[in-house]
């Protein structure tokens, strides 16, 4: 199906075994919103583009959700937003955004897999839209992780933002930010950046995080001692 110029293109509440596949959902305020709760559903092979204050893909209190094979383009305030989602997968998507928080976790999200995605972040090229953004600064991270025992592995990041466009001015952008939680695993991720960027940042409230081959020593920041780190050679 095609959804164009709608404030909320597709909102589904409390659905199990739902399949959203093969749709064009663009120029909408929000594209796909899975609200309430759900289990064993999938969002696959869609073309998606939301507005700068809207969701591209939003899911709350889901279990076993598969988000894969989607091509998600600007200007959504996030590409994939999980709120209290467990044992779900974000895999093999192409994500393009003009703002941080491309994959954004809210609440407590457990045992999710983020793997094999290509994330491209650059700046808004169209002058009439340049005054607008999603309200998040670049240290927020392209991936903002909250929860326990999640795995972020084998993703490719392309960060191409001029130094003068970084928010706030003079800040160091972050690629993967682990904001809270225990036992998260970050491994074998690759980031290409045109300016200095922190590849992985661990906030002070995190514990037991493993960071392997995803940053050099100079590209890694930990505000806690409770972690394991193996630098990219």
Automatic annotation (TrEMBL):
InterPro entries for this protein: Beta_helix_2 (IPR040526), Pectin_lyas_fold (IPR012334), Pectin_lyase_fold/virulence (IPR011050)
Gene3D superfamilies, sorted: Single-stranded right-handed beta-helix, Pectin lyase-like
Signal peptide annotation: none
Protein name, entry field: Right handed beta helix domain-containing protein
Pfam families reported in the protein's UniProt record: Beta_helix_2
